[in-house]
Amino acid sequence: MSDRAKVEVSAVAAALALGILGDALLRSFPWGANLALWVGVLTGVTILLGRSRSEALGGDGHWLLVPIAAFSLAFLWHDSPALRALNLLALLTAFSLLMLRAQRGRLRLSSLVEYALGSLIAGVNAALGMFPLLFGNPEWKKSLQGGVSRRVAAVLRGVAFSLLPLLTFGALLMGADAVFQNLVHRVLHVDFTHLVIIAAIAFPVGGYLRGLLFGKELDWSLEKRLAPLSLGTLEMGIMLGLLDLLFLAFVVVQIRYFFGGSALVQATTGLTYAEYARRGFFELVAVAALVLPLLLLIHWLLPRDDAQAQRRFRGLAGVQIVLLFLIMASAFQRLRLYQAEYGLSEQRLYPTAFLGWLAAVFVWLALTVLRGRRERFAFGAMVAGFLLLAVLQVLNPDALIARTNLARAHAGRSFDARYAASLSADAVPELVAGLPLLNPQDRCTVATRLLKHWSPPENPDWRSWSQARSGAWETVRENAPALRAAACSEPKP
Predict the structure, then answer these.
(1) Are 72 and 175 contained in the same domain?
(2) CA distances from 434 to 45, 407, 472, 483, 484 (A)
(3) Which of 101, 211, 223, 406 is most buried, with most CB under 10 Å away?
(4) Among residues of the chain, what percentage have pLDDT more than 90?
(5) Are the beta carbons of 445 and 431 closer than 8 angstroms?
(6) Over the stretch 348-362, which tens digit does the pLDDT of each residue have?
(7) 404-425 burial by CB neighbour count: b if 16+ within 10 A, else e?
(8) Looking at the domain assignment, is residue 296 inside a domain?
(9) What are phi and psi of 104, to 5 degrees?
(10) N- to C-terminal Cα distance for the chain?
């Protein structure tokens, strides 16, 4: 058997093992230690198999193992659902970029199109790559020359092909009829859902490993990609020029109203200052988010050899970025006003963090795209995103929200006790420490909900362990007498 065939057999065995391990670990929610452990094993398998294929982890691919390790271990730290979703997104991004690099992509000098293409190919491999891994390599057939061996191999391939649809339809039929479900359980003596989960994990893992070790789809796709359409200098100038005028008009209005104060806002719009701020914040975030792909698209459509068009684009886009920074400053000001009135929440904190990332990305766009170095933009934007997520881990968003709103309560401002008590385990120590600062009704609401949701379970599942949940259980256990004294029966809504 050739070296490639041996690696393919190892990849199939590793996928099956990771499927079995995933069934044992990942069935427990919310994810914590289980996901960190499973991703650690997947990373170890990737490194071991990649040693036989130097292009898989060669060059600048090794550093991607750092964010993979960091963001998987973050599941052991915080409990915020939003933060865990961002960590999972970062993990998927890092794994897709690992495949981009393995298929001879250049991480530091790749365009956004190539980054998106790498993610697409990683997804296609995860969905379909197990089939060519199992059935597409003639090396396996050469190693099985005998007639009996060929028949055995054909039977095994047929069983493997049938496994996923058999499990899928079998699970559906069992769910449709309890008698059939009991019959299957008696005959097979196995929980059918375990097989479904094993197959659902093993197939994408095997497909991903196939794309990482042997895939060449990226090179083929890049060669076949159509040349972009061309955008003339006049069209580009009209588009950006009109947008610059629109942004300038908005900035002038903002200066008038924000320096004019609440009296001018209420007299003109009929809204309070806080309502005026609330109404515009998310819209301004959306404007900032949409300008970025628009500028990149216009630049992509410009002829590369038209020096005049490139100069005009740099000028008009530079003006637009300056005006956009003033608009983003208005968004930050609106958030400050709204937070002063209503407090901090996840819906206000995460868009603000996203706005901060956009500010860094627009600076990077000016330093790269506007200076003729577009190929460096995507890598810097991705690194900025990873750094922002690392900063959020350190800030601990839910704890920050609880601490900020408790400080407002201490100062005599409004406090949303129901929302505060609905935050994740990250906020529990702050809420318990700040309980004496609350009025009796808010104290009763927070204490009752903390006892209900964060009292230590009798038999905690180690697979879902995280430092935040463990700390919340311990905090509630240590302060149980005080919490029970403050708790009350909540009125029905």
Answers:
(1) yes
(2) 46, 9, 14, 12, 15
(3) 211
(4) 47
(5) no
(6) 899 999 999 999 999
(7) ebbebbeeeeebbbeebbebbb
(8) yes
(9) 65, 30
(10) 70
CB 90 within 8 A of CB 68: no
**464, amino acid identity:** S
Cα→Cα distances 136→1, 102, 131, 304, Å: 15, 20, 7, 41
Assess if residue 491 is contained within a domain.
Answer: no
Joined together, the tokens standing for residue 100 give 């981009």
**DSSP SS3 for 108:** coil
Taking the model in full, what pTM does it have? 0.85
* Of 325, 358, 393, the domain-final residue: 393
Question: Given the structure tokens 């065995």, which residue do they identify?
Answer: 13
Domain extent at residue 420? 398-486
Regarding whether 183 and 86 lie in a shared domain, the answer is yes
Which residue, of 353, 375, 393, is where some domain finishes?
A: 393
Can you tell me the distance from the alpha carbon of 420 to that of 431, in angstroms, rounded to the nearest whole number? 8
Residues 199-208: tens digit of each pLDDT: 899 999 999 9
Torsion from C-alpha of 283, 392, 99, 196, nearest 10 degrees = -90
Identify whether residues 336 and 420 lie together within a single domain: no
Among 296, 297, 299, 291, smallest CA distance to 250 is for: 291
Which residue has tokens 């299957």? 184
Of 76, 78, 28, 68, which is closest to residue 46 (Cα–Cα)?
A: 68
